[in-house]
Amino acid sequence: MPLKHGQKGGNTAGVYHYALRTRAKKEVTMLKIGEKVLYGAAGACTVTEICTRKFGEAGEREYYVLMPVHDARTTLYVPVDSEALRAKMKRLLSVEEIEKLIASMPQEEALWIADEKARQETYKGMLRRGDRRELIGMAKALYSHRQKLTAAGRRLHVADERLFKEAEKLLCDEFAVVLNLKPSEVMGFIAGKLKE
Question: What is the CA 82 to chain-centroid distance, rounded?
């Protein structure tokens, strides 16, 4: 589990890069201070430091220090030697990859699952994996279901609304960083691209 800023521990000289295997390309990339990555539900983050610290009773370990781009109040410490936590880090898409993804949105299948428990489990897994196509399919399904419910005078289940917001945040966060937009401008940008 990444540690939040402010937890007790010492700090020594850090190492300034570390190999990270990216799933998408199966290549080793060096993480450097200042580099931006996606990290789980935190979204787009900047690697602000790579340091050695001691938290609590555990011995000293190396950590990536990540700061979410759109939440400067949060600092995450991700152990460099934790394969599971490092696997949550993904490279940001390029501008070209985002434009292709936006162009493919109308064709993306809405991934609706009628069984509530199965839907929650599946969608949570999609959020953990962070696959952008899955997130788009999930968001499309939830948005479409919300529209149907609204037309019938009902509301989307709270858990579904939360999942929709998380998927939307992850996508908008990354798109905003790569396209040099504010997160609030992303949906308008996407709508404009889809009208072209």
Answer: 18
pLDDT by residue for the chain (196 residues), tens digit each? 444 444 433 332 333 233 343 333 333 356 889 999 999 888 899 999 999 999 888 789 999 999 999 888 999 999 988 888 888 888 999 999 999 999 999 988 888 999 999 999 999 999 988 889 999 999 999 999 999 999 999 999 999 999 999 999 999 999 999 999 999 999 889 888 888 7
Amino acid at 35: E
Question: Do the beta carbons of residue 50 and residue 33 sit within 8 Å?
Answer: yes
181-41-10 Cα angle (round to 5): 105
* Helix, strand, or coil (residue 28): strand
Cβ distance 95 to 103 under 8 Å? Answer: no
The whole-angstrom separation of Cα 11 and Cα 110 is 47
CA distance 125 to 146: 21
